[in-house]
Amino acid sequence: MASSAMISLASPSPSLSLKDKLKPKLKLGASVNQTSLFFKDSVKTKLFTRTTMAVAADVSRFENITMAPPDPILGVSEAFRADTHEMKLNLGVGAYRTEDLQPYVLNVVKKAENLMLERGENKEYLPIEGLAAFNKVTAELLFGAENSVILQHRVATVQGLSGTGSLRLAAALIERYFPGAKVIISSPTWGNHKNIFNDARVPWSEYRYYDPNTVGLDFDGMIADVKAAPEGSFVLLHGCAHNPTGIDPTPEQWKIIADVIQEKKHIPFFDVAYQGFASGSLDEDASSVRLFADRGMEILVAQSYSKNLGLYAERIGAINVVCSTADTAARVKSQLKRLARPMYSNPPVHGARIVSNVVGNPELFREWKEEMELMAGRIKSVRQKLYDSLCAKDKSGKDWSFILQQIGMFSFTGLNKAQSENMTNKWHVYMTKDGRISLAGLSSAKCEYLADAIVDSYHNVS
Ligand code: PGU
What we know:
Blueprint: H1 2-10, H2 16-27, H3 32-42, H4 45-58, H5 74-82, E1 89-90, H6 107-119, H7 132-143, H8 148-151, E2 155-161, H9 162-177, E3 183-187, H10 192-199, E4 204-208, E5 210-211, E6 216-217, H11 219-228, E7 234-238, H12 251-263, E8 267-272, H13 282-285, H14 287-294, E9 299-304, E10 316-322, H15 326-344, H16 350-360, H17 362-393, H18 402-405, E11 410-412, H19 417-425, E12 429-430, E13 436-438, H20 447-460
Parallel strand pairs: 1-12, 3-4, 3-7, 7-8, 8-9
Antiparallel strand pairs: 2-10, 5-6, 9-10, 11-13
This protein binds ligand PGU.
C-alpha cells in the first residue's frame, strides 16, 4: 500500500522509459528508500523533490511522539464501553443518568430548543465574548440579579468553552498579567486543574484539604497552607460539591477562609461546576461565591452548565472576573477577548441560547429548578441506599457514615488504587483510581451489587 501510494505521488508523467524502469523494481519488492535512490540517481531535480516527500512519509517526523496515557476520568468511559459484562457499571465520569442508567436530556432543554427552532435563529458568528443574553443571565444566576457587583457593572463576563475552557481562559489571563503568581489548589482536586495550569504555564502548588483519617475536611491544614502561600496567590476553590471528595466547608468555615484570603491579599478563584447540584438550590450553592463578592473582594469565577443543565457536549460556561470598578471590568473583559481570539475565535451559540432561554424565561426557569431538584434528589436517594446496603453487608463495624456527609455527584470512598482496580477488574465497576465514584451513574437497583463490590475490595485487597 505504501509503495503504490508513493508511486502515484512520485510518477505523475515523466517519460515512458522512466515508468518502465520503475515497474520491475517495485514488483520485486523494492523498499521505499530504494525507489527514492533510483529517482535520486537517475532523474532530474524536479523528481528529486517528489522523492523527498516519499522519504519523509517512510520515516515519520512524528517518530519521537510517545503514546499518551488514557485520561484518568474520560479514559474510564472508553474502558467501560469495551467491557461486555452484564453487570458493568460506569461510575467514572460525573454525568447524570436516569434510574435506568440512561443519559438524560432535560425537558426544559428540549423546550428551549423548540423555541429556537420556531424563531428560526441563524448560525452567524457570535462576538468574541459570546452571546450577550447568555452573559447577562449567567452572571445574574451566579451572583443574584440584585447584587451590587451586577448593578455596578463590575463583572467582566465572557462566554467560555464550558467550565474547562473558562478555567483555561482565566489561566491565560493569570499567565499574561500576573507573571510568576502561583495558583494554589486543593489536595486532591479535579484532575484536569493541574493540566490546565501546566499547559497555561501557571505555577501551582497544593493546599491540604482532605483528611483520610476523618474522611473529612482538613480545615486547619487548609488554613495554614493558604496563610503560608506567597501574598497575592490565586486560591482555587470549588464553589460547592467539591470534586472529588464531596466535602464542602461549612458556612462558618467559608467565612474564615475568606478572612485569611483577605488578610493575605490573595485572589479567590472559584470553580463552579455544580451550581444547584449540591443542595438542589441554585442560590444556596452560590452562597460561597456571594460571600466573597459581598465583601467587595475581586474574584474570578468559572461556571459550567454541563451538569446542572445536562449540556455536557454543548460546551457552555463562562468566566466572570469581579473587579473593583466598572472601568477595570471593561479593561479585563477586553483582554479576555484578546486572549480568546487566537485560541478559538468565538464560542459556540447553541448552548448559550439554551441557557439564556431557560434562565431568562420565568416559566422555564421554574421548571428547570424542579428538574434539578429531581436530579439532585435521585442522587441523594442512591447515596442513602448505598449507605444502607453497606451497613447491612459489612459486619466489620466500619463506619460508612462519611458517605452520607458528602454532597454532590460524587462519593470519595477511601478505596486506594489497588482496591479501585479490584472494583473494575473483578466487579466491572468502572471508577477513577483515586477511589471516587459518581453516584449520578448509579441506580437504586445496583446499590446492593455496588456495596458487595466495595466491601470485598475494602476488606480483601490491601
Ligand atoms: N470543574 C470541575 C470541578 C469539574 O468537576 C468539571 C467536570 C469541570 C470543571 C469541567 O466540566 P466542563 O464539562 O468542562 O464544564 N468534571 C467531570 C467531567 C469529566 C471531566 O473530567 O471533564 C468529572 O467527572 O470530574
